[in-house]
Specification:
The protein has 220 residues and is an alpha+beta fold. It is built from five helices and eleven strands.
């Protein structure tokens, strides 16, 4: 009899653990979907995905009302009328939310974010389309711009914080404002040139209200 009771107790404990894990992943999935949907709608991106860090997730939500980390990735993000960003990736740390909104309404209402980083990627075809010049990016990090049928070496730099300038022989041929979308902060970006894209990265401390609003169903 004792063995049967012990076995039944073990089964009950296992069922509780399984149910708790399932609930944990279920709530996490709801939060990720809500945040990604909100970001896609507010930015006009073609797609968006969100990944929330921290485990057990229910403890973070119910006990602390926060996420340890949030990673949000958006693809084909419009920045004004002429430029489309290949992707925007935002990494956020210590994201405080309204737990009641998430549990009862399935909404992610962000109250504060401690810090974050943003990475904006622009491909060579997108740069060419936005500038009206054929632009080639080489594996060695060079930027080549077609000027009058001839390829000229160019340099890329950040102008007024969030403006990408492409210069040929010291003359700016185009300036592109990367922060023409609410998910992209106006901050001091640094640039990296690869064989396929230019990536601009910056640190956000604090995270601007525009970024919070782009991810949150309601700001408080």
């Amino acid at each position: 009899m004792f063995r049967i009771l012990r076995w039944l107790a073990l089964v009950v404990v296992l069922l509780i653990v399984v149910a708790a894990v399932a609930a944990d992943f279920g709530v996490k999935r709801v939060a990720e979907t809500a945040m990604a949907d909100r970001a896609r709608q507010s930015t006009g991106a073609s797609s968006a995905s969100a990944s929330l860090g921290g485990f057990p997730f229910l403890y973070d939500v119910l006990g602390r009302g926060s996420f340890d980390t949030v990673d949000l990735t958006l693809e084909e993000v419009p920045a004004g009328t002429s430029l489309t960003l290949q992707s925007v990736h935002v990494h956020l740390v210590k994201v405080a939310i309204n737990r009641q909104e998430l549990i009862h309404k399935r909404k992610v209402t962000i109250q504060s974010i401690q810090s974050g980083t943003a990475a904006v990627t622009i491909s060579a075809p997108e740069l060419s389309s936005a500038t009206g010049h054929s632009i080639t990016l080489t594996s060695s990090g060079q930027i080549l711009v077609d000027v009058g049928g001839q390829q000229a070496q160019a340099t890329a730099s950040m102008g007024a914080g969030d403006v990408l300038d492409i210069d040929v022989s010291g003359v700016t041929v185009v300036s592109l404002d990367l922060a023409r979308n609410p998910i992209v902060p106006a901050c001091s970006f640094s640039l990296t040139v690869s064989g396929s894209a230019i990536t601009a990265t910056c640190t956000m401390t604090p995270v601007p209200p525009s970024v919070i609003a782009a991810m949150s169903t309601q700001t408080t």
